[in-house]
Specification:
The complex is a heterodimer of chains A (770) and B (289).
Chain A: H1 20-24, E1 40-46, E2 52-58, H2 60-64, E3 68-72, E4 95-96, E5 102-108, H3 111-119, E6 122-127, H4 134-138, E7 153-161, H5 164-170, E8 173-181, E9 193-198, E10 204-208, H6 213-224, E11 231-234, H7 251-262, E12 266-269, H8 272-278, E13 285-293, E14 299-311, H9 321-330, E15 336-345, H10 359-376, H11 381-388, H12 407-418, H13 420-429, E16 437-449, E17 461-467, E18 473-477, H14 486-498, E19 505-508, H15 526-553, E20 560-563, E21 566-569, E22 575-578, H16 579-587, E23 597-602, E24 621-633, E25 639-649, H17 656-676, E26 681-682, E27 685-686, E28 704-710, H18 727-744, H19 755-765
Parallel strand pairs in A: 1-12, 10-11, 14-15, 18-19, 25-28
Antiparallel strand pairs in A: 1-5, 2-4, 2-6, 3-5, 7-15, 8-13, 9-10, 9-12, 13-14, 16-24, 17-18, 17-23, 20-21, 21-22, 24-25, 26-27
Helix pairs in contact in A: 9-10, 10-11, 10-18, 14-15, 17-18
Chain B: E1 13-16, H1 20-27, E2 32-35, H2 41-47, E3 55-58, E4 68-71, E5 74-78, H3 83-88, H4 90-95, H5 97-104, H6 109-114, H7 117-123, H8 131-136, E6 140-145, E7 148-153, E8 158-160, E9 163-164, E10 171-178, E11 184-191, E12 202-211, E13 214-223, E14 230-231, H9 233-239, H10 246-259, H11 270-288
Helix pairs in contact in B: 9-10, 10-11
The chains are: A alpha+beta (770), B alpha+beta (289).
Chain lengths: 770, 289
């Protein structure tokens, strides 16, 4: 009997993450579990000074310890410096500039021997004058952190659009505010770890957690004194990255030098304390915002000046203004805008990239400020935001086309589902009423890139595909999996094109010697860019198969389709032959033989910013709105988040399970930023390097979540999807700050809203503080 | 902070005691550190902040140190009783629910599974949660050594952070307290930046016989507001058996604030610790009315 196979789409189906079962049963072998034959362990001696000249380093006792195979200092690492401005030598030989600075490293047979050897190294210092805050570091006569930057300014960005004086003249009201956002860290469950191995011909293989493999080859090679082509990067499964592994950090070249010196594989792994002290943080920023509006609420101008505490060295933190700038210039319609950011060297730890990339900070400041502006002219927070919401296809001051966005829809859905206005008005009226517990509701929204960010000459991704005689598919992608769900999305997209089950698809994504180039996991780009490349390569394979099948069936290729492992007649669904059979017929065809193999390199239609920060940097943009409803204990200052409503423009839902996971995880991270997480750094030293005193959110604190996916259907995105991973982290904190105000009439401009800070602010508001 | 800055203590000798006699013998020269759950000891060892002596004496296999029992109107908790056992014991849930409630707020389930009552007492942290309700129950701590056995009130056991009246050769065998009578009321409060898995910024235990809106024989004990768990005896005397009206509660809050001695540190300020203590006490006294 003839078999009819209906069209069956994978897009939008609930699919379990491919890596989840192995992770759930502890079968995944993370990089931290890796052991190679003859492997040594490495350990770094770090300074306990924040700014000092190194007078001498005595490693003799460590070298004499049996079982120690190498002790290295700066003189053993003659290569170049690392970091975004190439200002960070892997091992410091002359001056230490912050608490984490690397002085020496050892390789030994066991980790315990490493610890013992490290304790035997003697360092003499001469302390230098210190500076810890931006304003002091900019002052005349401030200690100079790097000789070649006597003004202590690591990076500066400026942008201006429109006519600020005209904007000022048109304003009926001007609101000013200052917002200082704090240090937080990624808290990856898998601590930093790398394994390095040299071959006999001077080529090095680095097993690492990087989310930026091809740039790592380029960035690490000069510090090692090797050719980038001789560096092979392998990425075993990682326990989280969240942006922290976007740069090369000193421990990586140090591990390679230890491997080179000992001619054995070396594994270097952090302790948890080291992870807190020696990992990059989220960039702390001091914002000043001045913004004007007309009587009817129309925004007239916005001026933002910001100082970034750069710490001792420059990693990606100093570049976060590129993203902050977009929020400050382009979130809501503002005709006249000015933005300035200066990253200032100090003796603090330095910041790197972190999910949200400058937009978590920017959105805290801007959305707190927007609530103040709404109050100033007596509009409710919803009406004020809707009044100024960006319309679809708007060209921003920086020249981006926002395309198919739906900020209005995000705001309206979040407000309607939460019954925002009724609750907001009722809470406002209850400020003066007695009672220890107060209820509040708040909203915040944000704009983020949703189709990559062309910060390099290319924002592309390559993919290779092969099919075997059993119709099993192998996808070799440039994209990296750091837990975000790349494998699952690619398998779904390819299964859709080739009509094969997802379990018949193998994804190879972790070896720079196999994979085509990709720019790495950042900028919410992977589903969009790697996904598009996977769709394109699958279509090439599909065309090749259908051409062959057409020849076998005396039909035209466009009359055929691939469904459920069969070639079928497209119109009727009539099964013509199993897919594996046509693949074998193609393969074993004598002189006509062909294998199904295809390649693709997808370059999104975005453009790099020019020197004036003009350019449509991302292939897509999107918004999210979060509403938070909270109960504040006005005595203890604790904030219980009862429910969060999220409405996010996701383009198109590919896998609801992955989307929910990203949004829930992002909200947990954003809640920590807003409520409890803070790396306490005083005079350059980290006071709370442990999970006991650094408070990430745990399961009991998670509120009920109501998630709305708004499907705008991006014309360029794979199946219409947009990148979604960063927005959920970005939006929630200011929604809670705004809810606190709605509950109590007390505004806190500087996160996190810890119980003591809230209790103090409320007591001060009531005149109860002396 | 980092391993290179501090040297973890060297363990020269390890004894796994199979009986109380073996444990006492291993401690006899004052060179032993008792290992029970290890949730404090091990963390301190690894951070280099430990007060470990050179011989590690594992007491986990000593049957005499285990068990929750009641005899002759006295409840006895063996030193090895874990927080999970406090939480799950039907005897305690029935007769001393404040202990179960305290255990429920103690760290995380993984830590509760190993952390012991003896360890929480011996560690002498000013923020040790489990000692507060035990002081509220007038518990006696029983110490053993080769010199014999002695019991003393838990209330007078602590001398400062990490310091107790225990001699180097002594082990905690158990804590004992009278089975609470009818009408016994006991509450435990704590708060921190998050509700779960939190070291106490301030913790409070209030006990007494509650009848007709009056608390008789009250015990008011605070954690993390001084160098040791702090009992507020003047406040106790003020409210003892009296009707808890607004004026009395206000007076109690003021007196209590003079009895505690909180400090400023990076976890909380003195002002906030006082505010928390007063908030807890006010709420719990009002709840007694």
């Amino acid at each position: 009997m003839d078999k009819i196979i209906e069209k069956h789409s994978m897009i939008g189906k609930r699919v379990t993450k491919l890596d989840a079962p192995d992770k759930a049963v502890a079968r995944t072998r993370y990089i931290n579990d890796m052991v190679l034959p003859r492997m040594l362990y490495g350990k770094i001696l770090r300074t306990d000074r924040v700014h000092a000249r190194i007078l001498s380093i005595d490693t003799s006792a460590a070298e004499a310890l049996p079982g120690v195979q190498a002790v290295i200092t700066a003189k053993d690492t003659p290569g170049g410096k690392i970091g975004v401005l190439r200002d960070n030598p892997p091992l410091k030989g002359d001056v230490v500039r912050c608490i984490r600075d690397e002085i020496a490293a050892v390789a030994a047979e066991t980790e315990e021997l490493c610890d013992e050897a490290i304790r035997l190294i003697k360092v003499e210092y001469e302390d230098l004058p210190t500076v810890f805050d931006c304003t002091s570091a900019l002052a005349n006569g401030a200690p100079i952190i790097h000789e070649d930057r006597p003004d202590n300014i690591a990076m500066e960005q400026n942008f201006e659009h429109g006519d600020m004086a005209e904007g000022e003249a048109q304003s009926d009201f001007v609101v000013e505010g200052a917002y200082n956002v704090h240090y937080v860290t990624h808290c990856n469950m898998g601590v930093s770890c790398t394994v390095a191995d040299y071959d006999t011909d001077g080529r090095v293989t680095i097993y690492t957690q990087t989310q930026y493999p091809f740039n790592v080859k380029m960035d690490i090679a000069p510090s090692l004194g090797v050719h980038p082509g001789d560096v092979r990067i392998i990425q075993p499964p990682v326990g989280g990255a969240f942006g922290s592994k976007l740069d090369v950090y000193p421990y990586e070249p140090i591990c390679v030098f230890l491997a080179k010196k000992t001619r054995r594989p070396v594994k270097l792994i952090y302790s948890r304390e080291e992870e807190f002290i020696a990992s990059p943080t989220r960039q702390p920023v001091e914002f000043k915002i001045r913004a004007g509006m007309k009587k009817d609420g129309t925004l007239t101008f916005r001026d933002c000046d910001s100082l970034l505490n750069n710490g001792g060295y420059t990693s990606w933190g100093a570049t976060t203004p590129y993203v902050t700038m977009r929020t400050m210039t382009s979130h809501y319609t503002v005709p006249n805008v000015r933005y300035r950011a200066r990253a200032v060297y100090t003796n603090n730890p330095f910041a790197g990239s972190f999910r949200g990339y400058g937009n978590v900070q920017a959105t805290w400041a801007l959305e707190t400020h927007m609530d103040k502006m709404a109050e100033k002219i007596g509009m409710d927070p919803i009406a004020f935001r809707l009044k100024n919401a960006n319309p679809p296809n708007q060209i921003t001051p920086q020249g981006s086309n926002l395309g198919c966005i739906d900020l209005v829809g995000c705001i309206e859905q979040a407000a309607a589902k939460s019954d925002f206005l009724a609750k907001w008005h009722a809470n406002n009226k209850a400020w003066a009423e007695p009672g220890r517990f107060k209820r509040g509701i708040g909203i915040a929204t944000s704009l983020h890139n949703a189709g990559g960010a062309k910060i390099h000459k290319s924002d592309g991704c390559g993919t290779m595909l092969k099919m075997d005689d059993y119709a099993r598919v192998t996808i070799i992608t440039g994209g990296s999996e750091i837990g975000q769900g790349l494998d699952t999305v690619l398998a779904q997209l390819v299964a859709e094109e080739l009509g094969v089950p997802m379990r018949d698809i193998t994804i190879i994504n972790n070896d720079s010697a196999l994979r085509p180039w990709d720019v790495g996991v950042h900028a919410s780009r992977t589903t969009y860019i790697a996904g598009n490349s996977a769709v394109r390569v699958a279509r090439k394979a599909r065309d090749q198969i259908l051409r062959a099948a057409a020849a076998h069936t005396n039909m035209l290729p466009d009359m055929l389709d691939l469904r459920q492992g069969h070639v079928v007649q497209a119109e009727t669904g009539l099964a013509l032959m199993p897919l594996d059979r046509i693949l074998r017929q193609m393969h074993f065809a004598g002189a006509e033989a062909e294998l199904v193999m295809a390649t693709d390199y997808y370059e999104p239609p975005s453009e790099p910013e020019d020197a004036n920060h003009m350019g449509d940097m991302s292939a897509a943009y999107s918004h999210a709105a979060h509403v938070a409803e909270i109960v504040v204990d006005t005595r203890l200052g604790t904030i219980k988040v009862e429910k969060i409503w999220s409405a996010q423009d996701v383009g198109r839902v590919i896998n609801p399970v992955g989307l929910e996971g990203q949004i829930e995880g992002g909200i947990a991270m954003g809640l920590g930023y807003g409520l409890s997480e803070e790396l306490k750094i005083v005079e350059g030293k980290v006071l709370n390097p442990s999970f006991r005193d650094y408070h990430v959110m745990t399961a009991p604190e998670m509120p009920e979540l109501d998630l709305t996916f708004i499907e705008t259907g991006d014309a360029e995105g794979p199946a219409g999807a947009k990148g979604i991973a960063e927005l959920p982290t970005i939006v929630i904190a200011p929604a809670i700050g705004n809810a606190l105000y709605n509950a109590t009439g007390v505004r806190i401009d500087h996160p996190p809203l810890t119980p003591e800070k809230v209790a103090r602010a409320i007591a001060a508001h009531k005149g109860l503080l002396g | 902070m980092l391993p290179q800055n501090k040297c973890p203590p060297e363990i020269e000798d390890y004894v796994s005691a199979q009986s109380l006699a073996e444990a006492v013998a291993a401690m006899a020269d004052g060179q032993g550190s008792a290992l029970a759950g290890g949730s404090d000891l091990w963390a301190q060892k690894d951070s280099g902040n430990g007060r470990m002596r050179k011989r590690l004496v594992n007491i986990n296999r000593v049957p005499d140190l285990r068990g929750v029992s009641e005899a002759g109107g006295v409840i006895r908790l063996g030193a090895l009783t874990t927080m999970t056992e406090l939480l799950e014991s039907t005897l305690l849930r029935d007769k001393v629910p404040v202990l179960a409630k305290t255990a429920d707020r103690f760290a995380s389930s993984q830590i509760r599974n190993v952390a012991t009552i003896g360890g929480n007492i011996a560690n002498a942290s000013p923020a040790g949660d489990a000692v507060l309700p035990l002081i509220g129950l007038d518990a006696q701590v029983e110490l053993v050594s080769k010199r014999g056995k002695r019991s003393l009130p838990l209330d007078s056991f602590f001398r400062g952070p990490g310091k107790t009246v225990m001699e180097a050769d002594e082990l905690i065998a158990a804590v004992e307290f009278a089975t609470p009578p009818k009408g016994f009321h006991g509450v435990f409060c704590k708060s921190g930046p998050r509700p779960a898995l939190e070291i106490s910024v301030v913790a409070m235990c209030l006990t007494g016989i509650l009848k007709g809106g009056k608390l008789t024989g009250p015990r008011l004990v605070f954690g993390a507001v001084g160098p040791t768990p702090m009992r507020c005896v003047k406040t106790e005397a003020l409210i003892d058996g009296k009707a808890l009206d607004d004026a009395l509660i206000a007076e109690a809050l003021a007196i209590m604030a003079t009895e505690i001695a909180p400090i400023d540190d990076f976890r909380a300020s003195k002002w906030y610790r006082t505010q928390m203590a007063q908030t807890f006490l006010e709420a719990e006294l009002n709840a007694c009315r």
